[in-house]
Design brief:
24% helix, Alpha-D-Glucose-1,6-Bisphosphate, Chain A, domain 4, single chain, eight-stranded antiparallel beta sheet, Polyketide cyclase, alpha+beta, 158 residues, Polyketide_cyclase/dehydratase, START-like_dom_sf, globular
């Protein structure tokens, strides 16, 4: 039985600007505090079927394969000891110069329930760090200092 975690955050920036930062996975360690390093052999824009090795603090490194990609975000998957993980990263416009980001992590496989039992708190924390880091990165690089305040929406439902 699959377990899904979801984090949503509103960002005071155009959806295209947010997606540009989100799709640049090689740069994630500079704004996503949960990511120790990224090894992306490819250059240029992220590509479908591309593999990226990513290491998060307190977790083993994992190889992610991009399975779906468009201008609004991407989905990638990874498999490790009894758990198949699917990470979805989506951006949608919600108004003039505002976007909503939804980050979803789904764990499936024979050890998914045990993994979530032991790691739910860390999973929620890392999704929150990714959402907040992305929001901060995009908003701080926004040339308009008069941009409206942001409103975070925490959705830690399973």
């Amino acid at each position: 039985m699959a377990v899904t975690y979801r984090q949503t955050v509103e960002v005071a920036a155009p959806a295209e600007a947010v997606a540009r930062v989100l799709l640049d996975v090689a740069d994630w360690p500079t704004w996503n505090a949960s990511v120790a390093w990224v090894d992306r052999p490819g250059t240029g824009p992220l590509a479908s079927a591309e593999t990226v090795r990513l290491k998060q603090h307190r977790l083993p490194a994992n190889t992610w394969t991009v399975t779906d990609l468009d201008a609004t975000g991407f989905t990638w998957t990874a498999t490790s000891a009894g758990v198949h993980s699917t990470g979805d990263h989506r951006v949608r416009p919600v108004g003039a110069d505002r976007a909503e980001v939804t980050l979803t992590l789904t764990l499936d496989g024979p050890l998914a329930r045990l993994t979530t039992f032991l790691g739910a708190r860390l999973i929620r924390r890392y999704l929150g760090m990714e959402a907040d880091g992305l929001r901060r990165r995009v908003e701080h690089s926004d040339p308009d200092p008069a941009a409206p305040a942001v409103s975070d929406s925490y959705d830690g439902r399973r």
